[in-house]
Amino acid sequence: MRERARLRAATPPLRDAHPNTWALLRLESIYEPSPEREALFVSALREITRWHLDRNPVYHAYCQALRFDPERDLQHPEDLPSLSADLFKVFDLTTLRHVDYFTVSSSGTGGRRTTIPLDLETVIRMWAMGEASFEEEGLATEAPVDYVVLAPDPGLSPDHGNAHFFAALMEAAPARETIFALVPDGAGRLRLDTEGAGRKIDRSAASGRVVRILGLPSLIARLAETFESGPVRLDSDSLVLTGGGWKKETRGALPNASFRALVGRAFGVPSHRVRDLYGMTEHAVHYLECREHRFHAPVYTRVRVVDPLSGAVVENGRDGVLHLLNPGFTTLPFQSLRTADVGRSADPCPCGRRAPAFEVLGRGGTSLYRGCAATTLERLTS
Amino acid sequence: MKGFESFVFGEWIRDFVLTPASIREIVSEARKRTGEARSMSGEALADAVDSLQCLWEKQGASRAAFLEAEPERTFGLSRAMIERGLDHLLRSLHRGVAERRAALQLGSPRALRAEPLGVVLHVVSGNVFFGPCESVLAGLLTRNVNLVKRPGGSADFLSWFFRSLEEAAPRLAATTALLAWPGASEEIEGHLAREVDGIVVAGDMETIAAYRRLASPLTALVEFGPRVSLAVVSRAALEVVDMDGLARDVALWDQLACTAAQCIYVQGETGATHLAERLANALKQLAQTLPEGEAGLDERIEIARFRDTARFAEAMGTARVFCGGTDELTTVVFEKDPGFAPSPLRRSVRVKTYEEVADLTATLKPLRGILQTVGLAVNDTERQVYRDCLTALGARRFCSIGAMNEPAPDSLHDGTMELQRLTRWVEQ
């Protein structure tokens, strides 16, 4: 296995400040849980919670109101008070105000964009965790591939969150040729260049090159539909990677299996080479589907499927919201994040991994404001 | 639509599919029946409604069968709440109430005659299970032929209602149809909207806008858009306010009706926090006799968001949270921020504060056009000032505390003379 390049770039002072987190990030076989690894994970959570408590007066006040002390009260991951992802839209919870940081914005699925401050340390951790999951899935390679990226060129669209996200996925394999197929339309908007992307795919298929197609599933579906009348057969090591869900797709989401079937018909890419990623701006980990199309929680994270009100874990196979725990963020106290994403536990997974498996069903909430009260919220907040 | 039974002028049809052709047939059949509907005398209508009421209430047959057949906590409400909802609906089916409504809205000192529009389409949201029945009733009392879209949430109850109508008043039932189609189906809705003479549409802004766009300019539109309601407690009334009534204003129909108090404005901060605490206790008491219903996952997510934000604000000193345990939905939050914010419903309420009436009206300005019911707890000398200020903001109804969710059965719906809107006046 390659040494995780990104870890080498880490700044020594922060390695020293968070030894447990760094020990977690160095672990191999990330889908192999054990009591020792669990203990290390809890220590890392305790460590990052203390970090935020000592530097973040708002978070400190909150924990004080709950009378929560991590050294005393955090014995299990679920002991850590969770924060709703929405809080970061209402309160300024930035921990490191004195260091250099940059910001990234969420896609605004829930109606409002979240702007998240990130420092180099957090980014390095995110990269390291992403790299580990690609390696573990056998999707990291030294062999160059052709990229068809259905996102803007991040060099030309530095503020576009998706551009950076999909560009980061290109770290998993060196690029021989790349086309960014979401291009400016002259009116300040972006359009999908299906012709350019199609020509690139045709050329790569003809020369037997390995291709990686990256993008929102809705855009990949549109591209695939243009190939239905003249499908190609890409090299068997080719890969289709999706992320970001089906938001903003006016035609509605295709069921996952139908999407994979469409991609299979269009590009000849088998189902197990069509993978989705789940993540959110407020969480440092992006989860990569296994070949059985389930997500797994690596040892440096915990994914609980809980009832939103009680926080209690719901039964395997029943719907709940995803509660994500991870010590990655140094800029915000995101280490125990309750999302509005609906999911369910999916153990055991046919892929054989022992790490807990889960499925993501989409964004929950908001349908409550119906009937007479419907859209009132929008009107008042617009 | 697959999986649903439609009722088409006296006949139940399973999996009935609406197509442009079948819509034309239905509307054509409806037109043929307008003469029959129009020919019903006021006396015959009162008899029919009375028979329906008898069936549900006096004999109890429909009510008992309905309660027997439907599982606990159906429509997201507890059994006790459903019983109370039935009581509320049945009050509007009393012969005397129907007659009073007709006299109030359709009576005329001159030689005017209220004639039905003809064929009326009802697209009414099912957030409260008996709501669509009230719309159908207005259509029947005005002697229209009524085509009713089966709403999502209350679909089962509407079927029961139509079955009882068929049994109690077959002549009236033969002038109605209960149809099902998926929401936002422009093709179906466009055909219907262009063919009918009137449309009653209640729902969100998107739905209202869609029917405005789809309907012919000649079609009468009776619109009930999104609304919010609130209660106001002045300093003078603070000690005497009916807390049990205030709890009902929040909790009846689990706050799913647009008449439910989503915010309570209290004069003075000290009084507001005190009232919030008392209200939380009153809601707890009320839940003994009218238990909470079962909220879906999306609703629980919204309530959790509301609570999380409130708890965080509490830690920052800008809010106080008074809520039940993790197995309860009821949530009362005092917020220092006076701005109106909608509630996630299911007995979740914000208590806010104001100092002067002028502050209150300034705060509530964004509600212009969507403010519906205001429950007032003020003293007699203050009452008119509050009414004037809030009327200027567009409030449609004032009532005393405790009456927000159970308006009198002959009262106006959302400030609208609905019966009048479903008729045209003919000078004799």
Characterization of this structure:
The complex is a heterodimer of chains A (382) and B (428). Helix content of chain A is 32%, strand content 20%. Mean pLDDT of chain A is 87; it is low at 368-382. By secondary structure, chain A is of the alpha/beta class. Chain B has a seven-stranded mixed β-sheet, with helices on both faces. The two termini of chain B are 44 Å apart. The longest helix of chain B is centred in the middle third of the chain and has 21 residues, at 269-289.
- The oligomerization state is heterodimer
Number of helices of chain A: 13
**Mind summarizing the main beta sheet of chain A?**
6 strands, mixed
Mean pLDDT, all residues of chain B = 91
Which regions of chain A contain 5 or more consecutive residues with pLDDT less than 50?
368-382
Which word captures the global form of chain A?
A: globular
Report the average pLDDT across residues of chain A.
Answer: 87
Q: Layout of helices and strands, plus pairs?
A:
The complex is a heterodimer of chains A (382) and B (428).
Chain A: H1 5-8, H2 12-17, H3 19-25, H4 35-55, H5 57-65, H6 70-73, E1 83-84, H7 87-90, E2 102-105, E3 115-118, H8 120-136, E4 145-150, H9 161-169, E5 175-180, E6 182-184, E7 190-192, H10 194-206, E8 211-215, H11 217-226, E9 239-243, H12 256-267, E10 274-278, E11 287-288, E12 295-296, E13 302-306, E14 320-325, E15 336-345, E16 357-363, H13 376-381
Parallel strand pairs in A: 1-15, 4-5, 4-8, 8-9, 9-10
Antiparallel strand pairs in A: 2-3, 6-7, 10-11, 12-16, 13-14, 14-15, 15-16
Chain B: E1 5-8, E2 11-14, H1 20-38, H2 42-58, H3 61-69, H4 79-91, H5 95-106, E3 112-116, E4 119-124, H6 131-141, E5 145-149, H7 155-168, H8 170-173, E6 176-179, H9 186-195, E7 198-202, H10 205-214, E8 220-224, E9 228-233, H11 243-251, E10 261-267, H12 269-289, H13 297-315, E11 319-323, E12 331-335, E13 348-354, H14 357-363, E14 371-377, H15 380-392, E15 397-400, H16 418-421, E16 423-427
Parallel strand pairs in B: 4-5, 4-7, 5-6, 7-8, 9-10, 9-14, 10-13, 12-13, 14-15
Antiparallel strand pairs in B: 1-2, 1-6, 3-16, 11-12
